[in-house]
Design goal:
The complex is a heterodimer of chains A (449) and B (290). Chain A is of the alpha+beta class and 449 residues long. Chain A is built from 13 helices and twelve strands. In chain A, a hairpin with a 2-residue loop joins β3 and β4. The longest helix of chain A is centred in the first third of the chain and has 39 residues. Chain A is elongated and about 100 Å long. Chain B is flat. Chain B has two domains: 58 residues; 219 residues, MetI-like fold. With 290 residues, chain B is mainly alpha-helical. Chain B starts with a helix and ends with a helix. The chains are: A alpha+beta (449), B mainly alpha (290). At the A-B interface, α2, α3, α4, α7 and α8 of A face α2, α3, α4, α5 and α6 of B.
Chain lengths: 449, 290
């Protein structure tokens, strides 16, 4: 303060410096957001975000959302041989066998009645098809001389009916109906994932929970050769639609990839880290070589390792595990050797003073200090690698990542996609909890490294 | 002399203590031993299981491990003159990959700041909603990027946007948790000072908290940027957008286009190493101050 009072020149210098500082801070305060904004504007056009609106397929989104909570049942009549089939999601595996129908479909004397609910009813017979829409009237279609004759109540064609000479389609809130010369088809939408527990060929299909409990405990054996509960478990596990057994295996494979990769990398990196830490390495060239090796392993990245390894090992979990192992050996080698360089030397000296050898010094002076750091690193990576293993599985062809990409590429089994997504999230959360629990048990504190 | 007599001729009490200690040490050793055996058993059986479920076996594969790289390298060397042109050809894709990573880190970090402040004890705007925001971040962290990316490709079509949204989503959750841990340790005195002059919540956060935590937050965001470059390359390979997609096309073509594979490998490697070094340099400067 006194210097300012006594030296006016210095004071004005200081004044200037402070003002300069202020204006610089103001520049930064406005400049940084401005730069960020400019960058976002550039990306907005570089990524062609305005064009997204025209390319986006909102109908696909609607399919996805409706498949998430509902399923549809197809009732199809082949108009060339007059055969009617009822199948869930139109799949072979979900086709109702002869003599078995959902309670809203009745077939008698070549006439099929489909009750879509709320008074909507569709009738197929030899003459054609009729759809009774309450509050509107009867939509009557019959083939005549190679064309379709459509009879509607008075007034023009409403926009929910799409009609041409060869095809008539009706979409209402209760379902969808379409008629062509070759086939008549009705889709009925119902909530839930049908056949999730048992497929139609299982004797347990369609039973309520109470009935199933009764069958499993005191009920008579459906199959005399085995108990009901094992038959149920078998039918559930081998469910042809949902393939619970395969899915469980895939999840397990994904965790296995993460486990083998992470732990294998930790086991390889641990001894190497001693040679790559300045305070333990026996020679500079070894230290230098190892560090460059770690940088190389990390720099090549999981993607390239995965591609290279899948050529040598073929698809499967081993390839994914090795790709994780290689990348993480680089990461662990780097972080472990940094942790070793930061240890407290007093403990090592204490052990040394008792005449311990170098190995013993490492065992009793160093390892106890670094174990918590290493363990929490390894557990954190184990959890994060479960997520990576999902992506790597999609590339190498193993685990849940493969099932997910296969289900998405068919572009119709969205209920399966939703099922896998839910399972993946549950798996990652379970691994998160497990690694947090192990960390608190083994180290005694929580939180990320 | 007195020491040794004390040691050897210890009272019954000290003997009991010693026995107790030795028993404890032995038990601890036994536990570690059991843990070790379980761990080794899991590793060995896991290895054998993974080996049996793999199309090509481990021992068979290890002998061929250099076949593919040498094939690619041989073609790369044979066409070495073409590589510089290919590097230039794939540069726009590389920039797209980097843009995906940068934008998703930026958006993710901005959202993470908001979520972190809303879910930190002592700073939250609505303290009752802290658990809600925390579960939200946990959920965002748990969803792997590939899941969101593939679903969005179905809806939005190809291009860089699905990957960008997917990575930004995951980044928000991951950074939010780390940011919140940093903010928990922030000094509350500036906040109290600002409350005493009647500052709003936004002013308190902007002027009282963010200047304290900015270096640590920036360092986490830089680390995340580096991770997101890798993620964006891999998502391009599985889905669409950026250099990953070009790599998949070149790989599908197979022999004859390995020069392109070499060029892409070089670009990816150099980029990752460059940003790795850059981010660790700046992180050291920001956190440790040198």
């Amino acid at each position: 303060m006194s210097s300012i009072d006594t030296a006016p020149g210095a004071a004005s210098d200081l004044n200037l410096a402070v003002l300069k500082g202020f204006s610089r801070k103001q520049m930064v305060a406005f400049g940084v957001p401005a730069v960020i904004l400019l960058y976002l504007v550039y990306v907005f056009f570089a990524f062609d975000i305005p064009g997204i609106a025209s390319r986006a397929r909102l109908d696909n989104a609607a399919i996805l959302v409706s498949d998430f909570w509902s399923h549809k049942t197809h009732v199809t009549r082949d108009n060339r041989n007059n055969e009617v089939t009822v199948s869930i999601e139109g799949e072979n595996k979900g086709t109702y066998p002869e003599g078995m129908l959902p309670d809203w479909v009745t077939m008698a004397d070549g006439v099929t009645r489909i009750d879509l609910g709320k008074g909507h009813e569709v009738i197929f017979d030899a003459d054609g098809a009729r759809y009774m829409v309450p509050g509107y009237g009867l939509v009557d279609i019959s083939p005549q001389a190679g064309k379709l004759r459509l009879v509607l109540p008075d007034g023009g064609i409403p926009d929910w009916i799409n009609a041409s000479d060869t095809r008539v389609a009706v979409t209402t809130g209760q379902g969808r109906f379409s008629y062509t010369r070759n086939r008549t088809e009705v889709f009925k939408y119902q909530a839930g994932w049908e056949l999730f527990f048992f497929t139609l060929d299982s004797p347990f299909y369609g039973k309520s929970f109470g009935e199933l409990v009764q069958l499993a405990t005191v009920g008579e054996r459906v199959d005399t050769n085995r108990s009901n509960i094992s038959a149920m478990a078998n039918d559930f596990w081998n469910n042809a639609m949902w393939r619970h057994g395969d899915v469980a295996w895939a999840l397990f494979e994904t965790v296995l990839m993460a486990f083998l990769g992470t732990m294998g990398a930790a086991m390889i990196a641990l001894p190497l880290a001693f040679f790559a830490a300045t305070n333990f390495s026996p020679s500079r060239p070894i230290l230098f070589t190892l560090r460059r090796l770690f940088d190389f392993l990390r720099g090549v990245d999981g993607l390239i390792w995965t591609i290279i390894l899948s050529r040598a090992f073929g698809p499967g979990p081993m390839t994914g595990a090795l790709a994780i192992l290689l990348t993480d050996t680089g990461t662990f080698g780097k972080t472990f050797s940094e942790a070793l360089e930061n240890i407290d030397n007093k403990q090592v000296e204490g052990v040394q003073s008792t005449g311990a050898s170098r190995i013993q010094q490492a065992r009793f002076g160093v390892i106890p200090q670094v174990t918590p750091v290493f363990l929490s690193q390894v557990l954190y990576y184990f959890e994060s690698n479960t997520r990576s293993a999902t992506v790597i599985g999609a590339i190498v062809g193993g685990g849940i990542g493969l099932l997910l990409t296969q289900a998405i590429s068919t572009q119709k089994d969205w209920e399966e996609v939703s099922y896998y997504i839910i399972l993946i999230i549950l798996m990652v959360m379970a691994m998160d909890t497990l690694s947090g629990w192990l960390r608190s048990r083994l180290i005694g504190r929580t939180g990320h490294p | 002399m007195s020491d040794s007599t004390m040691f050897h001729g210890g009272t019954a009490e000290s003997n009991a203590i010693r026995d107790n200690y030795l028993a404890l040490a032995r038990r601890k050793q036994m536990y570690s031993g059991i843990l070790m055996v379980i761990f080794i058993a899991m590793m060995v059986s896991g290895f054998r299981l993974a080996d049996s479920r793999n199309a090509g076996g481990f021992w068979n594969g290890i002998s061929q491990i250099f076949e593919f790289p040498s094939e690619v390298l041989a073609e790369g060397i044979a066409k070495a003159a073409l590589i510089p042109a290919l590097l230039a050809k794939f540069l726009p894709s590389l920039i797209e990959t980097l843009n995906i990573a940068a934008v998703s880190t930026l958006i993710g970090a901005i959202l993470a700041v908001l979520l972190a402040l809303l879910s930190t004890r002592g700073l939250a705007r609505w303290p009752r909603l802290i658990p809600v925001f925390r579960r939200m971040m946990d959920g965002m962290r748990a969803i792997p990027e590939i899941v969101i990316a593939l679903v969005l490709i179905f809806i939005l079509g190809g291009g860089p946007v699905p990957a960008m949204i997917a990575i930004a989503f995951h980044t928000t959750g991951a950074l939010g948790k780390l940011f919140s841990e940093v903010a928990e340790n922030a000094d509350l005195k500036p906040v109290e000072g600002l409350s005493s002059v009647g500052a709003s919540w936004i002013q308190k956060m902007w002027l009282g908290v963010i200047p304290q935590v900015a270096p640590n937050w920036l360092s986490y965001a830089l680390l995340r940027f580096e991770i997101n470059i890798r993620a964006s390359a891999i998502l391009g390979f599985v889905g669409s957008g950026g250099i990953g997609y070009d790599l998949r096309i070149a790989m599908q073509w197979g022999q004859g286009r390995y020069d392109e594979v070499v060029a892409i490998f070089i670009l990816l490697f150099v980029t990752i190493v460059f940003f790795d070094q850059l981010s660790s340099h700046y992180r050291n400067r920001m956190v440790k101050g040198h």
